[in-house]
Structure formats: structure tokens, C-alpha cells
Amino acid sequence: MAQWSIDSVPDQTGRVAVVTGANSGLGLETALGLAQRGAQVILACRDQAKTEAAIARIRGRHPAARVEFMALDLADLASVAGFAGQVMGRLERLDLLINNAGVMALPLRRTKDGFEMQVGTNHLGHFALTGRLLPLVQKTGGSRIVTVASLAHRRGRIDLDDLNWERRPYSKWDAYGQAKLANLVFALELHRRLAASGSKTISTAAHPGFAATNLLTAGPIMEKSAIAKAVMSLSGALLAQSSAKGAIPTLHAAMTPGIAGGSYWGPDGPFEMWGGAPAPAVALKKAQSEKTGAGLWALSEKLTGVSYLS
């Protein structure tokens, strides 16, 4: 795709979007882009103060923007259920669900439900959220679900016997790779199940390449090694593209007409790391495995207690 501009996509007036983790980084840029094109955007986040600041920034750019905060903690299934209940009770349509929020390379921590924090937040929380909101999404014509994955899926390995790192020696980077691989496996399995059910809703995925997000900023802080901190900080400063550019593949997947279900989008530059335009991204075979997709889906239903498209 030679060029891409936010102004080239259709007007989104009348459409409603939920963007998780929209108070900073990629999520904020995604919410900003959707609001710019006229969509009503719900910023689904944990921190109200940070989200109100993000809303002020959006309205500073687009005074007529229809944006609002709704509390959501993906690391707490009760919060997911409460958020979904509010959305289902208030809204008559939901055109776009952008599963964007995530955490990266954390020391071993657990969610309120006992899941390893990275797979619990990045995947299981979004799995439950999608299932609870799906009836509203499916009754909305032209609806899409976009799940934000990562180049880190390439180093990931999904262990269905120990998804939550209860028996394996913990590695925060391997756990991050597993969580981001799970995001992509989920998006593709969701596409297969939607298509098999005859649903008109489509599931797509996108990744930002190497972008200067809040996760990249936080990464060095959590490193114990001074050398690792320095290397990560320097690489982020010198090599990473902006969050605005990193959000382009997500915005493309959400708003460009004719997007195919099951497609995966990233930057158009070398190694999918940088670029100003979206392009088809490479999903490794392990992400496309129907066996892995079915296994992860069944386990996710069991762990979250949320079943759909079975």
C-alpha cells in the first residue's frame, strides 16, 4: 500500500468503538484516530485520572470528539463482567472492539483470579471481554474485532499444560512472547469460529512494529541489569517509531473498507518494524495452527468461565 492517511478512510459518524488501554501509547493514538473520523469512542482503562487526561488531549485536537471513560481492569474477571454489563445495558450497537491493552515483561505477578499477569491481562482478559460483548457486536452491521498482537509472537510458545507458569521456571520475556502469541492465535481462531457460524462480524489482528509506546518506556525500568536498561533505553530512543505510526495498522484494520476476516496487519517497512503505511504481516505457522487455536480456546473458556462460539 503506497500511502495511507486517516483522512482516506470513511467517516465513522454513528459508529461506536471500545478501545482497551486507551489512556496512552497505541491505545490513545487509536482512540484519537477513531474520534477524528467521527466515531463515538469508549476508553476502557483502569486509571481514571490518566484516562481523563487522555480525553482532554483528544478534545484539544478535536473539540467535538465523542469520547468517554469507562472503568475496566482486564486483570480482574469481575471487572470485565461489570464493564461488559454496563456496555450491554447502555449501548444499542458496538461497531468496533479494539483489544489493545497489555503489559510487557513483568516480574512474576498474578491477576486477581490467579493467572500469570501477562497472559491473564493480554489474552484471558480480552478473551472474556470479547465473549461478553459479542452478542452486541454481532447484532451491529459491519462490526469488527481487532486484536493487537506483536512481533514478539515469533519468540512465543504456548504451553497449554502450564499456561500460567505454575510449574515452569518463570521467564518474563518468554511469558510476554506466549501472551502475544496467544493474542494472535485468538484473533485467528475467533475468525474461524465467526466464519463457521455464518456471522458477518470479522476478526482481524494488527501489530505496531517497533514503536515508542508506554510499554517500551516501562521496559527498561523493570530490568535489573544496568546494561540491559541502557540498551533498551537507547534502542527505544534511536530506533523506535512513534506511537502514532505504530497505531496505523490497527486503525487500518478497524476502518479501511474491504478488510478480510483473519487478516493480520503491520508496518510496511523492513522486517515489519517501521513504516508509514499498513501492509499484510506474517503470522508464523504456530499462530495459524488450528490445533493450537482450538486448544487455547477450550482452555480459555475453562479458565475464564466465559463460553461462546463453541
UniProtKB/TrEMBL annotation:
The UniProt record lists the keyword Oxidoreductase: yes
Lineage: superkingdom: Bacteria
Pfam families: adh_short (PF00106)
Any one GO molecular-function label of the UniProt entry: oxidoreductase activity
Keywords: Oxidoreductase
InterPro entries named in the record: NAD(P)-bd_dom_sf, SDR_fam
PANTHER family for this protein: PHOSPHATIDYLINOSITOL-GLYCAN BIOSYNTHESIS CLASS F PROTEIN, PHOSPHATIDYLINOSITOL-GLYCAN BIOSYNTHESIS CLASS F PROTEIN-RELATED
UniProt protein name: SDR family NAD(P)-dependent oxidoreductase
Organism expressing this protein natively: Oleomonas cavernae
